[in-house]
## 1
Amino acid sequence: MRRAVVLLSGGLDSCVAASEAQHRGFRLHALSIDYGQRHARELQAARDVARALGAEHRTVRVDLAALGGSALTDQAIAVPQDRDAHVMAADIPPTYVPARNTVFLSIAAGWAEVLDADAVFIGANAVDYSGYPDCRPEYLRAFEEAARLGTRRGIEGRAIRIEAPLVHLSKAGIVHLGLERKAPLHLTWSCYLGGRKQCGRCDSCRLRRKGFREAGLEDPVGYEA
Amino acid sequence: MRRAVVLLSGGLDSCVAASEAQHRGFRLHALSIDYGQRHARELQAARDVARALGAEHRTVRVDLAALGGSALTDQAIAVPQDRDAHVMAADIPPTYVPARNTVFLSIAAGWAEVLDADAVFIGANAVDYSGYPDCRPEYLRAFEEAARLGTRRGIEGRAIRIEAPLVHLSKAGIVHLGLERKAPLHLTWSCYLGGRKQCGRCDSCRLRRKGFREAGLEDPVGYEA
């Protein structure tokens, strides 16, 4: 059985990406990165999603908070709230964590080498997204090429593929695909803040709500506001 | 003054790369990665080299040992000794840490974004080297392109350059350049093992010795054997 490493943040998108990888016949090895984010709630969600999917799960620590520069790792920088989707996509927001997906993908590629896995799945999306440069398809293709040249499997002509099955989907499309794949959406956590419920107002909550609303479905996870 | 992030392992090559970056007029921000390597001796050497160069220095932890697959992070895998240089270059050895330079460069690129630094310097070398795929110039160019597409500076048309000033030098050439740049070579540590002295027999020690020997110079750092 072919193996895939799946980056699992605990959010909606990576849960659907993981379910899609499973649907395509891969045996899943779920990887979460504890990078010093504001709260551990999403890492708990990642563990729950991995368990529901029957996937091996590992959490690797990388202390990106030591470098600062993002609202997600520095409590002194505010997380924006109440922004509309077209505003989000127009600019790189303070929640951007410099080079985060490159760090995540490189660790995932390293684990894929060790496991002899064929692919790394990531829930990156460039339609209803926060304007992060490292979610765009042209970036993902460039990273795939760097990983091909910089790994043993690449040298051997069996390069690790970087699969981003959601990259061209709208958030509503992601919700629909999640339902089709019976993804455990009720276990996910998308909020940038670490409250008892999702805040409903940060970029991540607003994109998620927009997705469920446009899909005409109720979100199984509740919100504060 | 232009800034550069310099990956500083504590070894010979990164010390010379850092000195070269300083010579080119960059203000240095030295970055070491504690990735779960066999010993902390080289991280101490990195701190000493950074201090000697007057550079800011940070150590970021990434738990690559949690993924296994390398003699440098797994005590159960033996570090090869007494291999000749042409043998080393012919194959990828057990000391290869999957995707290590991609992990290192991505963290360095992230810090470069935060600092608004123009370049990341790495001491990668593809002449007298251990056959690691992620030391080759074609890999480094591909990573630079991924970083361009995946970072804010890249989007703004001010992409972070990946500089590998030693990539085409022989080990003797690296020693010569280090002397020319007055690099603090006496503070470096190249050995893969963590003894009181460098073992003199692992790939890294043998390449270092070969460099000093071919340069006709005495290595200021001693060996066990």
Note: The mean pLDDT of chain B is 94.
## 2
Amino acid sequence: MTKSLKLAIIGGGSSYTPELIEGVLKRLDHLPVTEMHFVDIEAGQHKLDIVAALARRMVEKVGANIEINASLDRRAAIQNADFVMTQFRVGGLQARANDEQIPLKYDVIGQETTGPGGFAKALRTIPVILDICQDIEALAPDAWMLNFTNPAGVVTEAIQKYSRVKTIGLCNVPVSMQMMIAEMMSCPPDQLSLECIGLNHLVWAHRAWIGGQDVTAEVLKKVGDGQNFSMNNIFEEPWDPDFLNALGAIPCPYHRYYYQVDAMLAEEKASALEGGTRAQQVMETEAELFELYSDENLAEKPKQLESRGGAYYSDASLNLVDAIYNDRKTIHVVNVPNNGTISSLDDDAVIECSAVVGSWGVRPLAVGHLSPAITGLIHQVKAYEQLTIEAAVEGSYDKALMALASNPLVPDITRAKAILDDILRTNDDYLPYFSR
Amino acid sequence: MTKSLKLAIIGGGSSYTPELIEGVLKRLDHLPVTEMHFVDIEAGQHKLDIVAALARRMVEKVGANIEINASLDRRAAIQNADFVMTQFRVGGLQARANDEQIPLKYDVIGQETTGPGGFAKALRTIPVILDICQDIEALAPDAWMLNFTNPAGVVTEAIQKYSRVKTIGLCNVPVSMQMMIAEMMSCPPDQLSLECIGLNHLVWAHRAWIGGQDVTAEVLKKVGDGQNFSMNNIFEEPWDPDFLNALGAIPCPYHRYYYQVDAMLAEEKASALEGGTRAQQVMETEAELFELYSDENLAEKPKQLESRGGAYYSDASLNLVDAIYNDRKTIHVVNVPNNGTISSLDDDAVIECSAVVGSWGVRPLAVGHLSPAITGLIHQVKAYEQLTIEAAVEGSYDKALMALASNPLVPDITRAKAILDDILRTNDDYLPYFSR
Amino acid sequence: MTKSLKLAIIGGGSSYTPELIEGVLKRLDHLPVTEMHFVDIEAGQHKLDIVAALARRMVEKVGANIEINASLDRRAAIQNADFVMTQFRVGGLQARANDEQIPLKYDVIGQETTGPGGFAKALRTIPVILDICQDIEALAPDAWMLNFTNPAGVVTEAIQKYSRVKTIGLCNVPVSMQMMIAEMMSCPPDQLSLECIGLNHLVWAHRAWIGGQDVTAEVLKKVGDGQNFSMNNIFEEPWDPDFLNALGAIPCPYHRYYYQVDAMLAEEKASALEGGTRAQQVMETEAELFELYSDENLAEKPKQLESRGGAYYSDASLNLVDAIYNDRKTIHVVNVPNNGTISSLDDDAVIECSAVVGSWGVRPLAVGHLSPAITGLIHQVKAYEQLTIEAAVEGSYDKALMALASNPLVPDITRAKAILDDILRTNDDYLPYFSR
Amino acid sequence: MTKSLKLAIIGGGSSYTPELIEGVLKRLDHLPVTEMHFVDIEAGQHKLDIVAALARRMVEKVGANIEINASLDRRAAIQNADFVMTQFRVGGLQARANDEQIPLKYDVIGQETTGPGGFAKALRTIPVILDICQDIEALAPDAWMLNFTNPAGVVTEAIQKYSRVKTIGLCNVPVSMQMMIAEMMSCPPDQLSLECIGLNHLVWAHRAWIGGQDVTAEVLKKVGDGQNFSMNNIFEEPWDPDFLNALGAIPCPYHRYYYQVDAMLAEEKASALEGGTRAQQVMETEAELFELYSDENLAEKPKQLESRGGAYYSDASLNLVDAIYNDRKTIHVVNVPNNGTISSLDDDAVIECSAVVGSWGVRPLAVGHLSPAITGLIHQVKAYEQLTIEAAVEGSYDKALMALASNPLVPDITRAKAILDDILRTNDDYLPYFSR
């Protein structure tokens, strides 16, 4: 690898970006970053300018030698990049608000990454990301693309199947689980080993170990007893201890949408009546954040960013950069092709799992036997995901309908069809290739 | 094979039995049946007597030379039998009524073979059938067991995994589909070829052929246009043409419980308010039938039996006997171990599929690529089925909870647990090995 | 299907053709053949003329209404054909003689379809057959191609992977096994059921059944006791009874090349010294046959053809035509994609197996568990086959070397390389796309 | 884990043991070994005493606090051990001499771990090691068993399938490859990453990486150019550069027995004529070593041990102890159940592969697509291995015959049977459970 690193950040005007900059600055002794190029679309120019200015102030404050570029020129950003990071949102927060609201009209979970909301996001995102991948193939064919764009598993599988870009999908959920479980077990995070397996936002810590002891049952007991095990942006519906015991694996916070449908739907509906959807709350937070970022005296990541829900986001991605660049061969939880890890699943299906990361890339760890309770749900959701990818790439109404009808959060095909038609209508601008 | 055939019918006092007797009498030129032994439990003595007397009158009328035995002695019935047929119902129609009513209390589909109802039936049935299998292993080890006992797929898989009995699971749904589709295509049933694949009561006619032409799309169009495609005992909610077109495979009538949950649940609730559950209606029909059977002048199957919902039941099982005994190597749709037919599924998972049947047994036909929309649902339901079998065999509350939580008709674990507790309470008498 | 059938026979000038014509004439009541178009290359014009004239006399003799065409115009032959049959030999019998002689120089089995000889034949044949397939795709896209061209399994897999033609690979070995085993068991052939599985010329009758009884052990005992179990064109080295008993499955005659290498190689070397290779013997037989065919008084298949070694060749292919055209759904042993039949093998690997054939095509029968002794060899030979196909299609020396090195009949890579170089030199005219 | 470690060494009287002791003494800062118990059989008492005395002198010299026990009491050695290491040889070097000589009589490779020699060793070893495992299950159920006993892959699979002992199979070949390749690439060993995959003594470095660059082709070029790439105990037949290039993966030294049969067999025969087999040479070396070990002034591992052929043996096993005890999560090449790593192979087939080792055990790394040239040979050899295990456990002549007939080094069943009968006769004393 080169001795200097260029990072390209697609969707650089995101409110999360200061966290990424802070992460880079903390790691300069082992990550020789010399250029960061933030790129965004025209509608994001203003935010991009604010973020770039803050970045320059942050770099200057610590006296680092990093060139900060910000532009609407995606190809310039990608050219010769060592790592391309994606964190954009097609349609912005308004599209997210729609994704959350539409399903609720039909008494179905409205969530930005799972269920019909995640489906709509995937339809909007896949064509754009495949377009970006063509630029990477042409301009930085050896670059690693670290994809944070949600639904991260679906998007990563689309990239793996329809481009030659080296990509790894990433999510902050597994890191958060590591931190929360370590805290409840009163153990340093690096002494807790989680064997994670599943799909993005449907990942189980199949087994938890401390010092060679399997502590899974103990962790489940604590979670069942009500210890904190949620993330900022997910309603913390308590877990039933009997269910956790029967499951025998630690669910991720997002599993509530699959297992505790009634309570989660009720909460979403109540909360939509009160304060609007999660997207609407985020819009307010964002406005406040950009207000802060604009302060010319600010030269560091403001504390308030943490309430935004993206904890460990920067750490997850920069630790991956570190593992690749410095050939660490450390274990990370990532989204990569299955390749036999879950033996009944196709080799090219993207899963989220514990994997060793080094300069040669990512190698999932074998996981052995899984309960049918886990593999059954994985197969069902993967079927939804693969149909969604095909629908997005082919612009096929039929595939889209079967995708939604296969999603376990959509209990009925009549509702599936009504929701699909509503999504297609509402997202008309972003689905030009989509035809009925 | 022997030149004379003994059939043992477990649950011989069933109201369906006259149809079976009629079927045997029709086939005497190629099936040399010389003994039929009907066996039942003490509570069924009265019905058994009525059925046996009718059987004797029917045999006498056609001048056949068949010994009719009826007893409570299961071992005597099984001893040296060539074929053992099972059609019993643990707990009788009252248990079925419970199976249908309990889920409705929790706004969940109440059906005797799918969802929580079928789950309860499996828990009651599996220990009994494995007990019968021990008798067969000891007293008629070469006998073929034809299992009609529902949920037929689950029960057949339990037998395959926990006994050495040669068994084939059987259902009248695929035969009915063959008949209904042939009728709507105005083609003789034997000129229509359906490639059936899936699980019991979750089987698709993956492709339909007439004269070497793939007519699947045409059939789907007719079904979508409202042609009759339901069975006597399932509410005929119309199918959405767009959905059928997107699915690209012909669903079975029971698929309505998975795809059209809202309408089916609404109908069940309405109908429960009006006329009681399906079980209650059946109890009335049965009473009427046995009234008829008792008529000493009756020496044939009464027409009224057909309204009972078991069309083609006798044909399905006796055609199988014929295929085995006479080495026909004809194609039947049966429940047998997968053995690679659906390549992502375990070899020992029982599936329902088109298979060749001869004197050497059953060989499924390879089916090739299936859409994720089909395999996803199969994996999810098979996970439920396998957990159910383990729960029944081990008497495990945890496995039972995970089974119900994995069933796609049970949308939420809180309801899953409430339903499970209700089922265990209500079926206490039939689940002696079950412990919490 | 149409009410009249056109057959196109590629390599129509073969000495086997009269058998095919006889087969057609025997089946006219259920196969309405109205046209047979024999096509060959320029070098075969003379033989083609002789065969066509004989065909016309045979047709006339029975008063059939079949148009006999013979030409060098492949496209005319294929145009609108219902079935295309291939039986050509690239390079003719001289190429076969080379295939048999080259390996012997290196102390390796020299055989026209297995080992290095079959490899050379595959390299010559695959480009030609894929070219033919392009014509079929364009001119008769609904036609079935019945491929007899050896190595039939390799060639069929190449067609399946690199064209869209509907094809079935066919061989007379399984039919011959059926006949020989029936004879030794003194049972009518149609009452013997063989479950065949493996690869072409590496096929086992995994189990043999008569009247529902597994008679595999009995058959093995008879074969071990020296009963005739060979084919005209394979040296009848006796089988060791202990080995057969340990194997527990009935090997095909060609298995001798894999299991009895020493004896087969010794015989080949002795026989090459005496009477020349098998190809040289066949050339003499052929010359005699064409002498006979030229007789203007001959209007039927001459008896002498039977000594040519292609017994049942015509029956095997015309029974397949019958099964497809008349939707017989009968069981045949054919070469088709695996699709889960051998569960550890890729779905698109072509295997030779018992399968049901009807108007919708071919569906292999599930076979269940196989001994590692069988699957190990299948995997090894399939690896050789797949590398051979890739070598032929890509013209890759590396793939060709790995193919030969992976063939179990080639015990050493130094010899593999020497043989490969010899084959490439000798077959230079037929391997234009092949580069080093 | 405990704060003090007990090691049990089965076959403690081996001439290798001083290397192990040295390895322990080097690692005392992070491996708190407080007891080593060497155990051997009665015939080995003399050697055991010599080794134990040397061990005590070595421990004393560095002032370590380690209790050295030596006894014939296997149960005492195993009781409460943390790690059990096996390095015994049933039948001693005389049995090895037989293993090497018998096959040569039939013109077949005679080698102690592959081919018929390894087969004979497996038959002798498996019953003994399963007996040891019963002791471990009873007396040290949490202990890790590190199995060096050859054939290590076969023996490890037998343990995995027929006991509940936690075991890892180990070999010094992959470590040696790492060292040799690093040397030829002039790179520190820890900067070279090999992705190893295959079976024991049939392992390929599928890909080699330095600093994120795939250097496989470069390594192959150097090996083809004649750079040292062999081990002390294997004849260094040069590799053909064209073959290596076509293979595209780095073979292990033992691959010469499969790929370069002619040269290896010729060398073995020549060498047997001259200096006796390898076993006979080793006997001499051993006698010299024990002479040295007996010297009461010796208190360290003598340099001469290195010529014995077991380079890195101690490092390989103690690095594994370290990785487990200290939860290093480092990558080692070990023999463990496949679990999807090679997707066409059974989950419970033991493979040799790169894997992460931590306090929770071993997790293989996914390896992705492999060439058929690799998987074909793996399947063939695994078939041999699995039949060998079944033969050993069941004492089955039939399975033994099929095992040998399936071994690619045995080209013919007549020879397979002759060799088998010779092996059974010669090893009569060690195969009490074996019956014909």
Note: The domain at 5-169 of chain B is CATH 3.40.50.720 (Rossmann fold).
## 3
Amino acid sequence: MLGERIKVLLDTTRRLSRRGASQALTKILNKTHTADIALLFRFYDSRERRRIFSLFTDLERKAEVVAEMDTSIAVELLSGMTPDQAAAILQELEYDDSTDIVASMPETLAAEILARMESAESEQVEALMGFHEDTAGGLMSTHYFALDKETTAGEAIAALQTDEDFDAFYVYVINEYGHLVGVLSLRQLVRTPPSRQLKEIMIPDVISVTPGAAQDEVARIVERYNFLALPVVDESNKLLGLITVDDVIDVITEEATRDVLKMAGAGEELPEATTTLRENLATRFPWLLMTCIGGLLAAVLIHQYLDKRSFLGFVLSFCPLLLGMARNIGNQSATLVARGLDTGQFHISHIGQILMRELAVGCASGVVYGAAIGGVAAALYHTWGYSLALSSAVVASMIVAVLIGTTAPFAFAKLGGDPTQARTPLTMTAMDIVSVVLFLALAKTLAA
Amino acid sequence: MLGERIKVLLDTTRRLSRRGASQALTKILNKTHTADIALLFRFYDSRERRRIFSLFTDLERKAEVVAEMDTSIAVELLSGMTPDQAAAILQELEYDDSTDIVASMPETLAAEILARMESAESEQVEALMGFHEDTAGGLMSTHYFALDKETTAGEAIAALQTDEDFDAFYVYVINEYGHLVGVLSLRQLVRTPPSRQLKEIMIPDVISVTPGAAQDEVARIVERYNFLALPVVDESNKLLGLITVDDVIDVITEEATRDVLKMAGAGEELPEATTTLRENLATRFPWLLMTCIGGLLAAVLIHQYLDKRSFLGFVLSFCPLLLGMARNIGNQSATLVARGLDTGQFHISHIGQILMRELAVGCASGVVYGAAIGGVAAALYHTWGYSLALSSAVVASMIVAVLIGTTAPFAFAKLGGDPTQARTPLTMTAMDIVSVVLFLALAKTLAA
């Protein structure tokens, strides 16, 4: 339902952009929710992104769109502007958002842009850049509404009525040293007689985290206590910033993606269009290496039980290795694709691009591991023909497994099913059959 | 950190409960956050739960604790009371919470309790019970703050100051037919001159869902637009209820668990202490059946390439099946345990109980599939000794795989690591080696 609406928007804006119908396009963009525009940018190519972004004239709106975008896309877009333009936009963002973007830029560009921001702003960004992005410090916004504990409820309401930027639901209460001593909700504030002081009505027992707290701990706290925001304090309990529930939701989704991908040894986050083959290989390398080492170990152990030079004995002892390599790389592809489709980060129309990327990973890994495994087998057992067959079978079956693993979730999604369901044992068995049959056929031919 | 605090609380409350030190225990409980108490109840046994729950004298507090508990625990606890007591507590809950609990009770008990609730309350619960729990209707609370569009800002603030229950951050605006026509945040309301009407200041373009919307769609919308609550309306746009962001966070975690478990064919939710062996077997059956069918198919196909009655040919052709069965059931165990530890639903101290449960599943599945696979192999190839060996190898390797799969994540968690990391290819390879070596050894002995 949501998907359909975005698809129509995507087609319409693309068509208008191609025709150069800027006026009609601007009209549509102005009526579209910022979050939807950010989503559209995921599907545009670089040229479309530049062209369509240039149609926003209002600096604040530009900043809103940039804040909602995937960081990598924001970096790409801002890198294409003059540092002055980029700095002007970044200055409008919340510090936590601008920090994420600046931290992802090449260092020289980041420095150039920071130099062009007002010093108060760039100092905040530089301070936040000191925190790891997966910690409370990396998540927090330094934008919060805190008042002294002696303030009255009436003064507090007056203060928030004049604070242009106030956009929170809790009022934090601090003492004269800036230490966090209490919290109250906007609702409590509104329901209190104006003359009472905040210290009389606040909840004094505030749960907070330090900037070094891991993001999954932050998520666990917000989840458990149903908070809408969580304050971040330093060791002396001085209020530093605020983590809002919408950022926590992003963390939870991110952690779920990480858990799913880690289960298949496919890294920690979904690759983006800008991820290089080298990076993709590096992500998937350790898991395949462990499979390879484990499989070689299995081969040597199983070989103990078998005739040293029998053809079937050789095939059987390398069977767990061969099946393991194909299954694991196929499983990595299937997991990445299913998760991407599931979270909406990939779309069915991306199939060509993603298949090319996966096949590149499959071919490169296949050749490396095929050569290594064949080499080890030959060195151990001096069975040249069989080893060559094993080597070729590893290459071929890893490539075929990637092909099956990548296309199956797309096929499921296309048929209206759940792409995750493509990772059934039947898909795995298909990979098994291909691997073993390829091995046997190759061995018979090459060793004949 | 959080875990440490809970552990201390758990030990202290257990000790005091065993000593019958009710007064000291009550004092601690009164100082403990409801969410933490609900968490403690996950670790208490049934007797401790009853005893400790009885210490809460305040009905409202009882209701708060019940609302935060896992549904199955709440059902257990309320089932042990008289229907009058249970009804009194349930009446204090939000309708969405009481509905979840009543819907999970045996029908006769649910009817008895509903009959004892005030009719206005029980009607609401019965109405909500009509919605599937995985839909917007099942998630929504019928508790919201809506005012007519002609209301002035001043009247609105007065209304929410007198509404005892008001606990939201958005004010919904409806017309004379109860149709949702706008929304405004509490912050906007506070910042508006008192004489202006809501229709002048509201945001008229409200994103809402119908009660039939799937919960993952709800989550996607709240996530994309950073809402704190999402209204639910019927087809005519009449406001029915509200889904709050804390419920959405639970949905996102639930969906993540579902995704992770589905990847391993281990059902959709983590088993609870009350889940029966039969239910656990049913959950894991389809995935294992697919593995079995796929493996048999592979065996028949591979067999084509090999000597019909050769020992190694037989072993090789059933190799993918044997490895697949062991890997898959081991993987199911490892996935369940790792996810449970990861979300905090399981604790290291649960190892004995969970290992027993998993071993029961492993033994039962092993015997069923071992017998079936051995039978099919014997029927196809008339190799009785080999088939018996295969059968025994399937049973033994499935049990060993469950043992490895269950203990590995606990071991990782115990060593301070990430339990998810226990599911590496090395664990899988360990299962492979055990399977093949068992098969070969058994075949040599039994077929000799």
Note: The beta strands of chain B are 146-148, 170-174, 180-185, 229-233, 239-244.
